[in-house]
Amino acid sequence: MPSVLILNGPNLNLLGQRQPEVYGATTLADIEQMCTAHAQRIGLDLEFMQSNHEGVMLDAIHAAKGKYGGLVINAGAYTHTSIALMDAVASVELPMVEVHLSNIHAREPFRHVSYLSKVAVGQICGFGAQGYVMALDALAQRLID
Ligand code: DQA
Hints:
Blueprint: E1 3-8, H1 20-23, H2 28-42, E2 45-50, H3 54-64, E3 70-74, H4 83-92, E4 96-100, E5 122-125, H5 130-143
Helix pairs in contact: 2-5, 3-4
1,3,4-trihydroxy-5-OXO-cyclohexanecarboxylic acid binds next to loops.
């Protein structure tokens, strides 16, 4: 069964309490549950993680090579700043779908730039927690035949 890593970046551990008017009331644990149930339905093995540390995220991406068939990444604010995360994804050559709960293109101009989108298969944003489920479907299309 193909396996996928969902990697969440800084401040996403605070979902549910953090700016609910922007990010909704769903917690990261709720999202993990939704994703685990969906992955089972569509035949993907899933691992889900979150870190507030760029280096930990880099290590997780490096370790993903040979272990997972694809990645889903919500890098939080590192999306807009981290050339290192972009380089890590390019280095491991795994299909990666970028997710954001909010529509980053409808927000402040500094959020319109995503380094990660340069190495992503595609970007899903603005659909809240459902975006993660959509990302799993997108990866399953590529990984399951
Ligand atoms: C986010 C959007 C980012 O701009 C922000 O820094 C986040 C969350 C989202 O999921 O909408 O932390 O990635």
